[in-house]
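REQUEST ID: PR-0412
SUBMITTED BY: lab tech R.K.
PRIORITY: routine
TASK: structure prediction, single protein chain
INPUT:
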Amino acid sequence: MAREFWRSSGYHLVKKNADGHLLVSDDLLRAFLMRPELLPVAESNAAERALHLSLMNEPRRPVSEVELNGIEDPDAIDNYRVILAFRDRLCQYETVEAAYHSFFTKGGQLPPLFADQLVHLILRGMLDDCDWPLQLRAAELFFRTQKVTVQDGQIMLADEETLEQLSASGGLGNLGRLLVENQTPLQQVDLDVLTEENQANYWARSDRFDMVLDLSFARGGLDGLCRVMERWVARFLAITTRIHPLSKVEDPKWAWHLGLDRESSTLLNDLYQGREIDNDQNQRLLSLFRMEIKDQAAVLPQVAGRPIYLGLAMDTEKRVHMKPQNLLVNLPLANKA
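STATUS: complete
OUTPUT:
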């Protein structure tokens, strides 16, 4: 029986089609309309209140320029334009996956906040059968920024927003503030590192995002991330891959690579071009991966038979902000839909 986790994803608001993809529902659209930026406040006029109420009743209904201009508040009007454009894109497609993918294949503005929310929801549906908390914790990298501590060869990731909230509320006191500034190792504060031994605790805490992931080489967290990436590619591109962690790339026939974030994209490009990498850049590289695509007929001829290298890095502020869309649009596929 599937375990409950990530209720904050909105998974309970949608149903699946025969392929297991998530159908765009009215309840999901209502959830986006309930964002704080759109909820009427004391200063909202009658037109704004009426519009919001009508959309809650009919979340797919068209909204005219006359209705928008009737709100009068320029900021509120801008907020409505953004959410309505986003809503229209969701409604254009049957499934959440198809709508999300379209932003990267057909263009359009996808605000980062909405992108993270869609990824959270898609992963929740995709991992519904997952019974391995280390894999679920690794999947959080796809939609939540992480803060990194590296000490004695160990790479520890903690949720940045959770750390900031704990620090601001005094939940971690001075230690929390030091941690946010990345001057204190994660092991020295009251945050649990997720391990094989304590992973059963994850289920009750999944929406708190307060467990630390050990992403060190040859640890379960890194293996969990590989499995999530494989499933992510299969969900959208219907291809089977196998991804393995690497300690370094030694390949005179290096043919293709992609970064899982902005920092690693730049670093891998430099390595591929034979540019010198300084020590600071090298230390920001957290993980390397080797991807193999099972069906080589799906791969560009010049890359067929060669592995694809992936990288994950932290920025100068020691944060990891993964871009899962890179796995969907930057692979060397012969036929990109």
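NOTES: Strands lie at 146-151, 154-159, 192-193, 211-214, 241-246, 256-259, 285-293, 308-313, 319-320.
REVIEWED BY: pending
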